[in-house]
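Hello,

Our lab assistant flagged a job as stuck in the queue for most of the afternoon. It eventually completed. Since we weren't sure the result was trustworthy after the delay, we are filing this so someone can double-check. Below is the sequence as submitted and the structure that was eventually returned. Let us know if re-running is recommended.
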Amino acid sequence: PATQYVVGADGLPAGLAMLYPPMVFNPNLPFSGCYYVEAVALVEELQALAAQKPTEEHYLLLGRASLTVAELKRYAYEKGEDMDPRDRRLLGRDGDRFAKIGHDAMDALPDSMSEKWRIKDDLYATMIRSLYKGEKFVNEMNDATEKALALDPKNPHALLTATKRPLFAEEKHGGDPQRALELIAKVLEIDPD
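-- returned structure --
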């Protein structure tokens, strides 16, 4: 059997860290094993809850849960280079479906919430699978980051999200590892945990 690790919110990728309790995480199973199934079920439950009782808290949780699933799909897409291209394309489209659920949830929140814009930025990032998609979403991502940080310049999650492009993009597309390290240092200054 695969080794399972119990990890707290700190040890998970950005979207997963938004869901609070520690969980069993199995890196050897597709989509992080049973956690993926639980995350999809949570999205479905939160969709029903937000439709029944539309509160900011429910929409925020729905956005975070959708981001979790979209990031898991994105991770599986990245690891699936040996997959049949049609299956891989469907996997990407399914990730986009969860990103859209998250975007719709964030659109229901007031524009004055920094976290709304941070989550939207991360959702756009899950949808980038090619240079074309990167160019398509770069303006939306930049706008979302700017709005998140204008509303709360000390939002550590927004600052961490702002590191993605300088950290992962090629230099000609905005990559700047030194800038990413500066942002990470700022995050640690604000929230050392």
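-- support follow-up --
The delay was a queue issue, not a problem with the job. The result is valid. The longest strand covers residues 5-7. Residues 1-33 have pLDDT under 50 and may be disordered.
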